[in-house]
Amino acid sequence: MPPETGAEAHFRALESLYASAPINRLFVSRLEIPEEGFARIRFEIGPEHHHAAGAAHGTSYFKMLDDAAFYAANSLVTDRFLLTTAFNLLFTRPIVAGPVIAEGRWVSGRRRVFVADARLIGPDGEEAARGTGTFMRSRIPLSSLKGYAPALP
């Protein structure tokens, strides 16, 4: 099979970048970018993510929602790393344990500022949280980041 090129190569390189981030050693998770403007992160919530009352701490919600929205937006940008400039979060249900999916979608913007939203789907298939973020182009070239690498054939 020939190596992927264009958008597909960019999506695989972003998936590689996600996997290379040291923070992701703390989360059992996997990023998928099936198409431009959409990202999905599958992850597992367990007791190590709990607050004192025995459910997932909000930092877990934020991390996955921010990442899903961020990668949905960065899928449209092939030259620069984006930075989160703001993120609003709405918690709707607690998650105690199990597989969770964060889905991010680009909403608007293609030049300097991008808006994307994300939703968190709990193990029961119900939405547990949602968020909207704004992301700005940084001065950091994606090509300069060690983890940003196209998939090998």
UniProtKB/TrEMBL annotation:
Task: Please report a single Pfam family linked to this protein.
Answer: 4HBT
The source's superkingdom equals Bacteria
Family matches, as SUPFAM superfamilies: Thioesterase/thiol ester dehydrase-isomerase
What terms describe the molecular function in GO for this protein?
A: thiolester hydrolase activity
**Where does the Thioesterase domain lie?**
54-128
Quote the InterPro entries the UniProt record gives.
HotDog_dom_sf, Thioestr_dom
This chain belongs to which protein, by name?
Thioesterase domain-containing protein
Organism for this UniProt entry: Sphingomonas changbaiensis NBRC 104936
State the organism's lineage: Bacteria, Pseudomonadati, Pseudomonadota, Alphaproteobacteria, Sphingomonadales
